[in-house]
Each structure stands twice: as structure tokens, then as C-alpha cells.
Amino acid sequence: MNNLKVLLFLTIIPIICGAECVLKFSKTSLTMPKNEEKNLTLFITDCTVEQNITFGIQVEYEENLVISPNFIKIEDNNTVTSIIIQLRTTDAGEAGVYTISSDQNIKPAFVKVEVYKNYILEIVSIVIGWTYFVTWTISFYPQVYVNHTRKSVVGLNFDFAVINITGYTMYALFNVGLYWIPLVRQQYEQRYPLSVMSVLPNDIFFALHGLAFTLYIGLQCLMYERGGQKVSWFGKGFHVIIVLVLIVSVILCFVHYLLWLDFLYICSYIKLVVTFCKYGPQAIMNYKRRSTKGWSIGAVLLDVVGGFCSIVQMFMNVYNYNESLAWLLSNPTKLWLGIFSLLFDLIFVIQHYCLYNGDSEEETPKVSEDKIKFEKENNNCIKA
């Protein structure tokens, strides 16, 4: 109802063509509990106004949020640089607050508001979020350690290693491009003017950290004993397809058929495909060798913790933010990727602890040291 009043009001109030103002909220996103009030500042700068200007403030999903005022008037002798907007949450869910004007020179400002039911659940969700961020971040370390201590990468599937490098390269390109490249950010704002950029600094860190460690594992594959292992036809064919897709995408960007923003989205889709493809070769290799030696179970267990926490957080947020399960299923990428990864982690756990538990990488160094000690003692006895 308030939105209808705003539209009617703006059609009645004359707005001079050619007026310019820069509007910006003090925050791009807010998280608030249900039935709480909070003030939000709207900054008004760079105004070139010859007559009075009136613009409205609308709410997307009014059932979750009420605001005041709904109209703002800028005088021709304006000296106001900021206005306080009062927010009051009424129900859990998502809402958006944005300015609206019939003058195209006034760019709309937008803030995303997420309303939760329970404060304790919100804190638990944040803790769970940091838990899976940390566990996924350190999940690269066990494989590096296993390779280093064994001075061998026998047992680590090269398809997995190379495809993983490709995946994190695409993921890093996507995050760094959206976060740091001005042209891409401009294209994003033009396509989604009433949306908040979802890439955060911790996403940048995770992507670059993951890329660095996957590259180092690839370097270990070149430095250490590999027992004749090499990238299979599957790994080579996979990368031929990826390279062709990237070449075509870049050409389409240069001829202005696609935006560079679209190219980065293609990179993100490649990362999703990588997640679905990278685990299979390692699981098949373990089966053929009847061994998990050389494949770090520590990395798998950390991935299990991270994946489980990620899925638990999603279901907690569905309840706490009053979303339906249909919403979760209609946004399946994160959910099904998490479930898919957990299924392969379960396969690796069964392979390591149930099927081939007599030959784990932890036992190998001890046996080797005992053997060396025994041989040295025998050599000493012979010389005596």
C-alpha cells in the first residue's frame, strides 16, 4: 500500500529534468531481529537542483519491514546532506529498501535488510559459519604434509590435483574480478541496481589461499616420487573442453556480445563443474589400488566437518529467517554441492577405515623407520 502511495505521489509532484543527486545509504546490508527499530542514514551529495525535487523510499516485502519517512523533498537551496530513515521490523524474512524517482539522473540507493527470529540461533549460525570457513581453509594442509613427509605423491590422483587447480583458478578469478575490477563492478551495478555485491574479503582470502595450496600440491607432484602416475585421458579431455569454453567466452567479450561480468559467471560455473568431477578419479584410483596410502584422510575429515556445518547452517537460516524449504530447493547450488561432497567424503572414509584400513599413510613411516633401524643393526653386526 505504501509503495502505491509513493508511485502516485511521484506522478503528481513535478521533477525538473536534468537535476542530479547522488544518494547512498550508510550501509549496503543490515541484519536485524524481529520487532526491533533502527535508524539508517541516507546521504545526499553532489546535488545540482534548480527546483524542488521529491523522491520516494520503497520497501520490498513490506510484511517484514516498515519505514519512515516514505517521501523526501530536496529544496532548490538545499543544504541537507543526510536524512535519518527509521526502520521497524515486523516479521522474519528478507526486505529491501530503495529510493525511487521519476528523474533518471538520480541513481537509486539500495540496502538489503535480513530479519531473523531468534538471537541465539543467529549467534550459533555465525559460529557455525566461521567453523566451516576455518575447517575448509586448513583442509589443504594435511595433503601437503603427507606428500612432504613421504617425499612421494604416489596415491594422490593427478586428475584430482590438476582439476582442483583449475577449479580454484576459476574461483579466484570470479571473486577477485567482482571485488576489485571497477569495470566488472560497474557492469554488476547496472545489471542489478537493487542488489548487494555478495563477494566479501573472506571469500577473496579463501579463493587465493586455496589456489596457492593447490598450486603447491601440483608442484609437489613434479618434485616428489610419482611412480609413473600421470594425468589421464579424462583429465586431459576435461581441460580441453574448459580451454575451448574460455577462449570462446573471451572472444565474445571482445566483440561485445558478452560482458566481462558474464565471463566471470562462466568461471564460477566451471568451478561448480569441477566440484562435481574432481572426486571421482581419486575414488576409482583408491579402489583399483585397494589402498588409500598417499591420499590424506585428514583432509577428508576436515571437509566432512566443513560440509556438515555448511548444510546445518543453511537449514538453521531457513527457519530463523522464515524461509521455506521450497526456497532452499529452488536455490540448490550450495545445498547439492555440499551434499555431493559429503557423499564422496563418506566413500573415502569407508575406503580408508573399512575397506583398506590395513594400509594407511600414518602407519607407513613407522614401518620404514623400524626397517631402516633393523638393517643398520645387522650391518653393524656383520662388520664386527
TrEMBL record:
<keyword id="KW-0813">Transport</keyword>
<feature type="signal peptide">
    <location>
        <begin position="1"/>
        <end position="18"/>
    </location>
</feature>
<comment type="similarity">
    <text>Belongs to the cystinosin family.</text>
</comment>
<keyword id="KW-0812">Transmembrane</keyword>
<dbReference type="Pfam" id="PF04193">
    <property type="entry name" value="PQ-loop"/>
</dbReference>
<protein>
    <submittedName>
        <fullName>PQ loop repeat</fullName>
    </submittedName>
</protein>
<keyword id="KW-0732">Signal</keyword>
<dbReference type="GO" id="GO:0012505">
    <property type="term" value="C:endomembrane system"/>
</dbReference>
<feature type="transmembrane region" description="Helical">
    <location>
        <begin position="204"/>
        <end position="225"/>
    </location>
</feature>
<dbReference type="InterPro" id="IPR006603">
    <property type="entry name" value="PQ-loop_rpt"/>
</dbReference>
<feature type="transmembrane region" description="Helical">
    <location>
        <begin position="162"/>
        <end position="184"/>
    </location>
</feature>
<feature type="transmembrane region" description="Helical">
    <location>
        <begin position="335"/>
        <end position="356"/>
    </location>
</feature>
<keyword id="KW-1133">Transmembrane helix</keyword>
<feature type="transmembrane region" description="Helical">
    <location>
        <begin position="293"/>
        <end position="315"/>
    </location>
</feature>
<dbReference type="GO" id="GO:0015184">
    <property type="term" value="F:L-cystine transmembrane transporter activity"/>
</dbReference>
<keyword id="KW-0677">Repeat</keyword>
<dbReference type="GO" id="GO:0005765">
    <property type="term" value="C:lysosomal membrane"/>
</dbReference>
<feature type="transmembrane region" description="Helical">
    <location>
        <begin position="237"/>
        <end position="257"/>
    </location>
</feature>
<dbReference type="InterPro" id="IPR005282">
    <property type="entry name" value="LC_transporter"/>
</dbReference>
<feature type="transmembrane region" description="Helical">
    <location>
        <begin position="119"/>
        <end position="141"/>
    </location>
</feature>
<keyword id="KW-0472">Membrane</keyword>
